[in-house]
Amino acid sequence: MLSNSQSHPSFCSSKALHWKINQFSKGSAAVGGTMQIATAAWMSCCGLGNAGNAITLGRSGPRRRRLMMLMWIILSGSLCLVVDGQMKIPPETVQQWAASFGKEIAALSNRYSGAKLLQKKYKDVEGVVKMEEVNGEELVKKFAEEMEEMLGRKMKSVKRLAEAAEDADLGHEYNETLEFDYFNSLLINTVDEEGNPIPLGGEFLLEKNEHFNKLPVSTQQSNIQVPTNVYNRDPDILNGVYMSEALNDIFIDNFQKDPTLTWQYFGSATGFFRLYPGIQWIPDENGVVTFDCRNRNWYIQAATSPKDVIIVVDVSGSMKGLRLTIAKHTINTILDTLGENDFVNIIAYSDYVRYVEPCFKGMLVQADLDNREHFKLLVDELQVRGEGKVKKAMKESFKVLNEAASLGQGSLCNQAIMLITDGAMEDFKDVFEEFNFPERRVRVFTYLIGREMTFAENVKWIACNNKGYYTHVSTLADVQENVMEYLHVLSRPMVINHDHDIIWTEAYMDSVLFNTHAQSLLLMTSVAMPVFSKKEETLSHGILLGVVGTDVALRELMKLAPRYKLGIHGYAFLITNNGYILSHPELRPLYKEGKKLKPKPNYNSVDLSEVEWEDTEEKLRTAMVKGETGTMSLDVRSSVDKGRRVIFLKNDYFYTVINETPFSLGIVLSRGYGEYIFTGNVSLDEGLHDLITPDLTLANEWTYCEIDIDPAHRKLTQLQAVIKYLTGKEKDLHCDRQLLQQTLFDAVVTAPMEAYWTALMLNTSSMDDGVETAFLGTRSGLQRFLRYTGVEKRVGKSFLTSTDKENMFTLDHFPVWYRRAAEYPVGQFLYYMPRQDTRAGRIVIGATAVTVTVGKKTAIAGAVGVQMTLEVLESKFRTIAAQPNDTDCSSIEGVCPLRCDSFDIECYVIDNNGFVLISKQRSDAGRFFGETDGSVMTTLIQMGMFKRVSLFDYQAMCKTNPHSVSSARPLLSSFYALASTLKWFLSNVLLFLLEFNFCSFWHSEHFADAYVPKKKWNVLQPCDTEYPSFIYEPSVKETNSIIKCGRCQKMFVVQQIPESNLLMLVVQGDCDCSRQYPPITLVPKEVKYNASVKCDRMRSQKVRRRPESCHSYHPQENANDCGGASFIRLSGPLLLLCLSRAALVS
């Protein structure tokens, strides 16, 4: 067997063989000696010693001998490669390349960015600046007070609306025959075929308004929206609209007193919605208006106190078909009336009692969005069977509610049982005597499903004798109105007592305009207050007239915690009394489905512990939920660039409660760069001179001056507003003097950069092709940049444009290049390629931080950098990473001359997170190196040169797995598929036609959901994921190793590139290790929980702060008003159609 000679190192690739032949043939020009030289070279390569003793060549003529020798070399070379397969790459050569490349790119970056000049300018002013330590406790207190003041103004506006509405109702006498034309927001500015305004339409002047996101509105008056399922000329509607006309003047007056107000509204208990400013309402694609104000969280929370609800549904055999469909829709509608301050469970009964979610057996769970959606999925799967045993279900419900009350769990306020059935053969008086009489602490609401009225009296008795309400639901069109009745009953104690509790909602998206306007993507909170009837004759009935409210855009609220005061990595956040995120820079409420952005199903029930997940003991969450004031510190793994890059921070958290609201505010200051802030003074004239330059911009999402107060200012940019204020042209502007002082100072210090960059650009003969943009940013949100390249030649066309949010100062974050440069040694450039989805072409960004030091205190003043094409670095790398053929190789042990353009050598430049910048393969640029070469990356991780860091995403969306057909019936799968389709068609499509087209044109998004078959595959659902990030360990400057890959070995050399965050890798390219070392990807993996763990997580009850007020009882309540046969007000023709439909179904 052949073996390697220890005295002759083996380099058995074809490149190595070529190098050996060159070595042996130096000084020899004889053609006849080539064969002998080649033979010797091969023998040396394979370590065979004396070639003459090992090989005997035939004497068959020169041509035959040459041919045989060539074949022998090829075959033996292959054999040698199989035996050894190792090449020696000289580390000293790679080190020289890295040093040269580092100097080249450092010189290039320094020259075109002007980094040394900018650092010198800030160094020159260190003697005149004042460095102050940021006091987080004072800062969070100040922010909270300002937010409290702002929210207080909204509450005062709502109180004025409530008072005006109640006074208007008190002076209004109900008129059954009232005729009154009003502006219906769906019909305004609409004409008939003859060009005449249609009834309830008419001309309604609309103008685009900057304050309302450029939507066409009328700030002179409000208008009325009526859902499709409500008759817009119903006497109740006409009387309510006429009465509420008095709100118009209050709307306008409120807006004049507080120009920061957005939408103001009155939601009537009869179903109409008065909105100011008035808008043109856009129906959905079916021409239907599904929005019903009474379904909105602000309405429900204001109308009732917190509640515990057990929904008991009959799934016995008699509930089959339409009855079960109506029952399911009733359950879903009840669930939609619950909020995060409520608690719920669902029990289904037939021959036995079962919980629809077995994991929730015997308990109440918070009715947050997650749990409500989970229940809906389970309800959809309910099937009927057996005989109905309602007594056991009622007993079980009372036991759960009683236990919750005794243990201090649930809402500790209203308690109710919702019984959904097609009949009860007895009244179960003995059950109520055992559990509920005489206090009747638990209200029972009953919903009789279907047309059958045989057992109606028993079902009604149950409700009327338990302070509840009875309704008869015979069609899907009845569900909405009948479910809403229970809210009016629960509101009675509060109405009778005239307790005007102000409520604040959790974060939500403005679904009023969701389907048609970009406004919908803004997160809002609403403040609302109930409106009661003051009339003495109806006092005991506790009549709720409706709810008034206004919206607050959370972005506007968070502007009161300015970015410049929190530092590079600092931020502010808000949570509710339940621990859910109201606002946080890491909250991601939207996801992409195709090209469309959609809200995640659980976007407003993201817990603080799911964002600040390093708080493993939830100490921060618990303290904030309890409304405490305090501080704590955490070591955190934070990510930038959409999670691709990890940074390690030491964060200090400061938190306090916002009085008169259920919210708590927290701010984060990062050690190092959030600890200090510096100020410097310059003259106004000097600052203005350097501020008014074409290369300068300000962060337009920051608030330098309030431009939203005066309508005349709303079209100004922040820079324009600042200049008008400083020049005295707009003295009434309210501006942040501290921020303006910092901005003017930075403008003066950075002013020389414009002249420096311009001089370089004008010297075209010395310009490097591909260097496109020089830029800088400062802690005051000031940015300067100069384009070295015209737009027609520029590769990075979107860089530093208005669409390039990642690289601009925004309300949520500093630019990516600024944040990353701050974590790297000052004076050294950090290079990276932007993500593929954010860059326009193959570009590289290099940036470095600039500091100010006073004594021992250092603060980041800004960052400066250059954007260039990738070809700039590639060309310099190709020039350096190739030894010429005449290289003196006498002192080099290994492949010489070494060239990266050789076919068996792979060369890379990667950054400190393992992403490829330079590779032979153009497609590798921007990819993670582990995907390109898993063997080398795995070895680097094992050697400690790279560290794997696990990150978690508790807001992820994952695809659901398809349901496979059971293997027990493969031959019948087509039959079952056809049967399922037919079943769906008969039970849903026909039902849809009957209920929707023939009866009051009723429509809601829940109704639509009930009839659209939901695909079980490729549907994105909320999930938890874990994903890796990798970071270079800078203490390891260089390394090399040999990877054994079956029948070959791969050598590689890694060298840090000085004065940068880059590494150079030279890898043997002719040894494929992909079988032994699969690629390392950054693809997130779903965290799977087994059934037990999943159940424990679902059952866990986190700390929460209950609302302060509860209205569950009043001695004057008229409990005899407990319902009867339900009805929907329809026009005559529609009523006849409904009756016809009923006959058809029967």
Describe the structure.
By secondary structure, this protein is of the alpha+beta class. Among the domains are: 104-134 and 682-881, no CATH class; 153-298 and 505-552, no CATH class; 306-500, von Willebrand factor, type A domain (Rossmann fold), CATH 3.40.50.410; 561-674, 2-Layer Sandwich (Beta-Lactamase), CATH 3.30.450. 32% of the residues lie in helices and 22% in strands. The protein is built from 31 helices and 42 strands. Strands 4, 5, 6, 15, 16, 17 and 18 form a 7-stranded antiparallel beta sheet that branches. The chain is globular. It starts with 13 loop residues before the first helix and ends with a helix.
Give the C-alpha Rg.
37 Å
Fraction in beta strands: 15-25%
Query: How far is the N terminus from the C terminus?
Result: 92 Å
How many E strands? 42
Low-confidence stretches: 1-60, 72-85, 512-520, 962-1016, 1125-1146
Shape: globular
Q: For the residues shown, what is the average pLDDT?
A: 84
Major sheet description: 7 strands, antiparallel
Helicity, as a percent range: 25-40%
Helix vs. strand class: alpha+beta
Number of helices: 31
Subcellular location: Membrane
InterPro entries: Ca_channel_alpha-2/delta, VDCC_a2/dsu, VWA_N, VWF_A, vWFA_dom_sf
Family: Belongs to the calcium channel subunit alpha-2/delta family.
Protein name: Calcium voltage-gated channel auxiliary subunit alpha2delta 4
